[in-house]
Structure formats: C-alpha cells, structure tokens
Amino acid sequence: MRSSWDLTELTNVPQGFRIFIRLLPMEVGDKKLLVLHLKGFLVDCYHQYSRTDPCPNRRPHGQCNYFYVYKRPGADKFLKFCFKNFVVGVWSAAQEHNVMALSDFTFGPLKKKLAFIWTNAQCTDTGLTYPGKKKPLVRKELSKLWSGEHGVTWGKDVFGPSNTILIDDDPAKIEKNPPNTAILLKTYRVTDPEDDHLEKLQKYLGLLADAKDVQKYMETNPFELEEENSVKDPPSEAFKRDDSQALDLLIAKALSLKIIDESSSKSVMLLLNEAFRGSPHSESQLKGYALLLLQKYNEIIQLSDTSLALAESTVNSDSSSQDFERSQRQSEDDVLKVWWWELTARAKYYLGRLEEAHELLQKSKTVSRNCQIDSIIDVLNKDFPLSMSRIRDLLHQKVAGNEAFQAGKYTEAKEHYTAALACIGDSLPFFAVCFYNRAAAFQALRHVTDAIADCSQAIILEPMYTEAISKRAILYEKVRDYAQCCLDLQRLRTFLENQKLQVRIGQSTPGRLNRTEDLRQVQAWLAKAKAEMRKDYPLDYYMILGLEHRCTSADIKKAYKKAALKHHPDKVGQFISKGEGGVHVRRWKEISNEVQREADGLFKSIGQAYAVLSDPQERSDYDRKEDSRKLRANFGIYEIYRNAQEAPGRDGWKSSRG
Questions:
Q1: How many helices (H) and strands (E) would you count in the chain?
Q2: Contact 498, 517 (CB under 8 A)
Q3: Residues in domain FCP1 homology (predicted)?
Q4: Whole-prediction pTM
Q5: 144 shares a domain with 110
Q6: Is 575 helix (H, G, I), strand (E, B) or coil?
Q7: What average pLDDT does this structure show over 480-488?
Q8: Is the dihedral of CA 146, 148, 152, 153 positive or negative?
Q9: What are phi and psi of 602, to 5 degrees?
C-alpha cells in the first residue's frame, strides 16, 4: 500500500498532461494552500553553455540538466517554514522534465511532502508570446486547483480564494485570479548577493498562516517590499531603467488581453524611452501610455490632470530662474502638455466625448508648432491613430442628424446617422448614441423592426445604455413581444436597483433623476407586461414587416424580402467589420457574436411573420383573431368608462392629467 505522502504520477490523463499528486486525501486541518514558483523565485538558472558567466565569483549550488542552479539566499530555511505551516505545492510554467529535475534539486528530501507538482501543461495558454521573445505567455488559474481539475480531487471544496496563496514573479501569469490570492515577488537574480526577500516573505506568510481569511487580510495588509535604487546609478538612469521594466510588464499584460499585437509593442517601448530620455516626468508619461494600452481611460484623465497641475506649479516656482533656464523649462513644459493633451484626447474619444477630444487636439496642434515633438505624436498614432478631421466628420453627421430630427425630417436624420456609422472609428459610446438616435428616427417613420435592431446594437456597444433598453422595451411592447419586453424591463430594474444601492452607500450621487420613482414605474410596467404575456397573444406580424392590414400579397412578399435581406444574421456585421482592426480588438469579437445572436432572434420573427401572412388561410385566421382581440380590448375600455360613470359619489371618470 502506498503512503499518503508518496508523490505519484497519474497515468489516466490525456497525453501531454502528466501530473504528480498525492493519491490519498490529505489531512489539511486549518492549513492553507501555498503554491510556489521555482525559477526566478526559489532559484536562478543559467545555461551551462552561456557565453557569459553571470556571477564568476560565486559557484553554482548544483546542476539540473544543462543548467547551473543558484539557490536564493535563505531558501532552505524558508522551505522548512513553508512545509511546517502550509500545504505546499509547486506550479511552474516550465516543461515537465525541467520542473521535475529542478524540484529534486530545490526540495531534496522535502519533495515527498509536496501536495502536487504542476507544469506548463496545466497552465492556460494565451496563444501569445512576451514582447521581443519567443517565450509563450501563459496564465496560472487557481480555479483549476479549486475545482479539482487534472486529478486534484483532494483540493475540491477544500481550498478556495480564502485559504490559497499563489507566489510568482510574473504579473502576467497571475492576473486572471481573484484579487488578493497571489503575492508578486521580485525576480531573483544571482547577481544580487544582498537579496533578503525570502526572509521578509516568511514573516508575512507567518501572519497569513494565522489569518482566518487570506483575501481579507491581504486586502488590508498587502505584502510590500521596500525597494531602493542602487547608489551606483544616477537617479535619472535608475528612473528610466525602472520605467522600462514597468512598461514592459504592462505591455505584457496588454498583450495577454489581446489589446495590441506583439510586433508593435517592443518598438513602441523603445521609442517612448528615447522620447522621454531625461524627462523628470517620464514615470507618469510612460504610465499614461500603459494605461492607454490597457484601456483605462478615466484613469488617464485623472493622471493627466494631476501631472499637468504638478508641472504648472513647478514652472511657477521657478520665477527667479534666468531667462535661458525659464525658456528651456517652458519648452519642456510644452512637450509635456502636448503629450498629455494627445493622450487624453484619445481617452476621451474612446469614452465618446468627441467634442472635448477635438478641443484637446486643437490645443496640441497650436503648441506643437513651437516645439519638436513629432516623434511623440507618431508613437501614439502608430497604435492609436486619431485626427481632427475624423472627429469633425463624425460630429458633423451627428449634429446634422439631430437638427433634422428636431425639425421632423426623420428620413434625412436617419441618413445622417447612417453616414456617421459608416465612418471608420472605434469610439463605442459615440456609435452607440448614433444607433440610438437612428432608432428614434426609425420609430418615427414606423419602421419598428429597424428601430429594434438599432436599439440592440446600441445596447451591445454600451450595455448600461438605459435609454436604449427602455426604448427597445417600448418597441417590443408595440409588436406584442412581451417576453423580450419583460427581459429588458428586468434588466432596467436591476440597473436602477444597483444605482439606488450605490447612492445609499455613498458610492454615487443622487443625480437629477429620482431613482426611487423610476424604479417604481419600471416595476409597474414590468407587472403589466407580464400580465399581457400570460394572455399569449401572437406577435403583430403586420408591424414587424412594416405593413398595413389592407396590404396585398405582393406587398407582403416585397416587405419580407427587404426585411430578411437587411436583418439576416450574415448581413448585420457590416458595421462591426470596420472596427475589427481598431483598439478594441477583443471587444469587437464579443460584439460580433452578440450582434449575430440578436439578429438571429429578429430574423426568426420576420420569417414567422411572412409564414403567416403569405398563407391566405393562416392570414385569414390571424386577422379574425386580431379583430376579436381588438374588440375585447375596446370592450374593456368601455367597461372601465361605464363603471366610472356609475360609481356612487362620482360625477364621472376624469383623466389624471386634469
């Protein structure tokens, strides 16, 4: 009989997924799960045929395969502490033969106490590589351990976010895990003989071992290392070096999210480092660009305001400087302003605030004439192209459409909104507004199906677009699709409930709308829609095809062909295709899938309408039921009026409007 401490290979798993775990359940007690990394955390490795010796004055602790291995200072003491206080496992992104050899060397006799050894086969492959390297970019998803994947049945329902700690030196590998479940430690290099990070980490892990909830403790007491620049480096050089490493990591994260492509990331980083060489504001400038890569647009605006205010105060404090120094400082200040204006213009463009973006680009153009910063703007335009002419075209069509709509020229308004949607760009909130406005024009023209489709597009681009959700609910109600109407109203109710809760706990301001009254109205509307849905009325097929009841068979056939061609799931992606190469690459793919799904439902309703109205017998039966429904509806209104007239003490039924 095997001991429960034996580390055994599972053979009944798919090829290429060999894993090593304990066969029998472990007595974990109150111990938490500690998942350790190897290379870069516990050891540093260099190939034995490397051209340069990283540390000629220090002999390696051993050799694994073709690699010289150096243990991190304090590693043996640290591991004894870990096995005493935690359930310990290993998860490395390296290949199996290297991981097993390195585990033998690193843990020695303690290896038999490991709960599991996972390799790159258990990592999630993103299909990407690190900037400028062929090394695959993978992720370690703790959910695989918690759910009992790959044979780790002892972990299922035993470990979770509250009692698991993952340690790694690469933020890209741990980013998809729940917050406060991982510790990011500085990569160990043998060239750093003063490394004492394991000692500091051990003290922190001792506190985590006693904590009831790992996540809650780490949230209020995050692990921090006091980093100091080397005294050998001038501040500016160390500053630029750290910025380069930070940007490299942020770009790797952006790559893992498939926001940018690898071919441009390295060249952009080098160009930015060169452009900001010696700049006292380089940290925030590089951070701003990284935030743009990660689509953190509101954070960019906040950082821009802070950076520009700080720069302005610095310039004002140098009033006693010589004229030449003031002139030089003013030139640097202009470069800083242009950079932030260009960066913030793009952030506001992607947020749908095109007027503000255009104003910032105009300011940038005016100032940039006096300073040499074309290279900086070129860097931004490489991955985030934006021009004033594009913004002017979009705003012109939208404004013209709004003016035509206000004048009652709905066809003209529709054409202007369509022209705006045909422009190249990926400002999702702006296009959502254009779809919503065009839906209003279609509604005024009694093209209900077209209006529903445009509302759906607007909601897909902006999921919390409450006006579009409300309008689509109204349109579904018009065609008597009460099931879809109820879904939209439930969505609207949930949004209003969340808004009300945020106001209550102080995370949001009340605003101009009375959310309590809005919520009450939506709940009443939802109750009415559910009551109508229970009556099981058929859809209004005439309205779906945009026809009158007295239409001919030829009219029905013509309307069906037009609607089917326009709303076929394979045809609705024309707008989506123009944005697939933009900034929101991954989002465009999600949008495309959602548009296809919405179009499929609408297309089925169109086909159902044609199937009924094109058949003389079915149309006759449908018309007879429609007449009966209208008669009952009219009779119901008459009953309400008669009861109001006969009620004692009442002079008659009065409108609530007075």
A1: 25, 12
A2: no
A3: 27-208
A4: 0.58
A5: yes
A6: helix
A7: 94
A8: positive
A9: -65, -40
